[in-house]
Design a protein that fits this description.
Number of strands: 15
CATH superfamily of one domain: Phosphoenolpyruvate-binding domains
CATH architecture of one domain: Alpha-Beta Barrel
CATH topology of one domain: TIM Barrel
CATH class of one domain: Alpha Beta
Mean pLDDT: 86
Shape: globular
Structural class: alpha/beta
Helix content: 40-55%
Length: about 575
């Protein structure tokens, strides 16, 4: 949360010229395009070096800037621009714009929001090349006033990184973007409040306006009244006090008053999230999503790409356990391949199903994981397992890779636990059988809930039916935990439900061993765990499950939380 005066960036849209060339001019135009690419590559490299002297701050943004460098050399972009120049005799600026629009259109057809957000990255890279071709300045440092809230139509990750580096920016507000946009990720990594995707904020807000930004709720108040400002300032004061107190207890374990120990881990997608997770007390990584390795690449990442990234994360975690989920990709999300659009991709060829049908892609990741396992305690987790056959085949592929590496004389970790995400109703129902052949469970509640209740979370018409405390969900969770306990294997939860402090007592009562969540959720969950006994939580769950509807269960649990803790920020 932040309060400050708006600093609206004047971002005049770059008008791209269109020029018809003679056939004799195309060779020189291609050379001009190649020169602009080389210059852009050097600019991004210099920018990365410029940020590095600040230590971890520079490292936080290096991966995103490196992704933009990879996009510059994307064979699809390079080949198509040169082809248009040669075949249609048009200038490089116009050809670059046309190709970038075509690539953006391909992202529009993806179902996953995370991958759709890469459209903005295509724009940022193409804009840099066009500006170089036109001889315009790039990466100019903007003189941002101290404690300003930067307002813009959109902000590139490079611009955001430079602004954050100065320490003058209090927050960001943009018309475009989503929670998975690179600019939002940069802001989150540096704990700078940001509200993105507001539509026309840059038109409605004027430089100098007083604005209050709440990065948690996505609210922006423009020229608030005195009463609104006082309430907002009080919210900031309470949040800062809570954060300061939380950081003081970051090293304390989540142990109930009667001695029940719950491990609290972090969810992550980018290495730059690690410092914040550790600062807030994460005991390990409970879910590392690896799909980001496929972003901005025309071809799947190599074994070395995978290995270097996993090695970096394991070493950064300093001996803490890292649980890496194998690729949860679908047929419409793999670079360099064209696929027919699936009618229902959430229940189609994705995750472990896709990997088992594309074994070369799968083996590249498995080999890299095994090689990286010598650098720290690693757990491998297979997503969307629906039966024993999939688990057995996936483990067989893993052991085949282990044998290949052994024959090649490459070192691997001696013991790498292999677990599964329990996120399908079929896996929940046969959890007792799966527990005999998995080393651990991690419950993915996001998919488990939507599959169990037959609803699409992205469909606004039925989103109200997404109820984590539905009796069917609670009974599924009970069955999964009981199966894990009977087989004496750890059972974790890594879905959104794990980080919701309003249901922490329910999860504590169920008997989970680990919960995995974002950095900002760790303190609230830990405080609740440390303030109660597990016996008390079990009594609450027993009463809750006596009700029949999700609404009744939610009302009861909410009332109990309010009675016991008043407000979560004051616990």
């Amino acid at each position: 949360m932040a309060i400050g005066h708006a600093f609206v960036l004047d971002q005049k849209k770059l008008r791209t010229p269109k020029v018809k060339l003679t056939p004799q001019e195309t060779a020189a135009e291609i050379l001009r395009f190649k020169t602009a690419i080389a210059l852009a590559d050097r600019q991004l490299s210099d920018l990365k070096e410029k940020l590095l002297p600040e230590g971890q701050q520079g490292q936080d943004h290096a991966l995103i800037l490196e992704a933009h460098r990879l996009m510059l050399h994307d064979p699809m972009f390079d080949y198509e621009v040169q082809r248009l120049i040669r075949e249609e005799a048009i200038n490089a600026e116009w050809a670059a714009r046309r190709v970038s629009r075509r690539i953006k259109h391909q992202f529009d057809n993806l179902d996953d929001e995370y991958f759709r957000e890469r459209r903005a990255d295509v724009d940022f890279v193409a804009d840099r090349v066009v500006r170089n071709l036109m001889g315009q300045a790039v990466d100019e440092e903007v003189a941002v006033p101290v404690d300003a809230i930067v307002v813009a139509h959109d902000i590139s990750p490079a611009e955001a990184a430079m602004m954050v580096k100065t320490g003058r920016v209090a927050g960001f507000v943009t018309d475009l973007g989503g929670v998975t946009s690179h600019t939002a990720i940069v802001a989150r990594a540096r704990e700078t409040p940001a509200v993105v995707g507001l539509g026309r904020a840059s038109e409605a807000i004027r430089s100098g306006d007083m604005i209050a930004v709440d990065g948690n709720s996505g609210m922006v108040l423009v020229n608030p009244t005195s009463a609104q400002l006082s309430l907002f300032q009080e919210s900031i004061r309470r949040h800062q006090a809570f954060e300061a107190s939380a950081l003081k207890t970051a090293d304390l374990q989540a142990v109930t008053t009667d001695g029940y120990r719950l491990r609290l881990n972090g969810n992550m997608e980018f290495p730059e999230e690690i410092p914040s997770l550790l600062a807030h007390g994460a005991e390990g990584i409970g879910l590392y999503r690896t799909e980001f390795l496929f972003l901005n690449q025309v071809a799947p990442p190599s074994e070395e790409d995978h290995y270097r990234c996993y090695k970096q994360v394991l070493e950064s975690m300093g001996g803490r356990t890292v649980t890496i989920r194998t690729l949860d990709l679908g047929g419409d999300k793999v670079p360099g391949k064209k696929h027919e659009r699936e009618t229902n991709p959430a229940m189609g060829l994705r995750a472990i199903r896709y990997c088992l049908q594309h074994q070369e892609l799968f083996k590249v990741q498995l080999r890299a994981l095994l090689r990286a396992s010598v650098h720290g305690p690693l757990r491998i987790m297979f997503p969307l397992i629906s039966g024993l056959a999939e688990l057995r085949e996936a483990r067989s592929q893993l052991e085949a890779c282990r044998s290949e590496l052994g024959r090649a004389g490459m070192p691997v970790g001696r013991r790498t636990p292999v677990g599964i995400m329990v996120e399908t109703p079929s896996a929940a129902l046969i959890a007792d059988r799966l527990a005999q052949e998995a080393d651990f469970f991690s419950i993915g509640t996001n998919d488990l809930i939507q599959y169990s209740l037959a609803i699409d979370r992205q469909n606004r018409d039925v989103a109200y039916l997404y109820r984590p405390l539905h009796l069917a969900v609670l009974r599924s969770l009970q069955n999964i935990v009981q199966a894990a306990k009977a087989a004496q294997i750890p059972v974790a939860m890594c879905g959104e439900m794990a980080g919701d402090p309003n249901v922490t007592l329910v999860l504590l009562a169920l008997g989970l061993d680990e919960l995995s969540m974002t950095a900002g959720q760790l303190a609230s969950v830990k405080r609740i765990v440390r303030a109660v006994s597990r016996a008390d939580a079990q009594a609450l769950l027993e009463k809750a499950m006596a009700f029949s509807t999700a609404e009744e269960v939610e009302r009861f649990v909410r009332a109990e939380m309010e009675r016991r803790f008043a407000t979560l920020e004051e616990t």
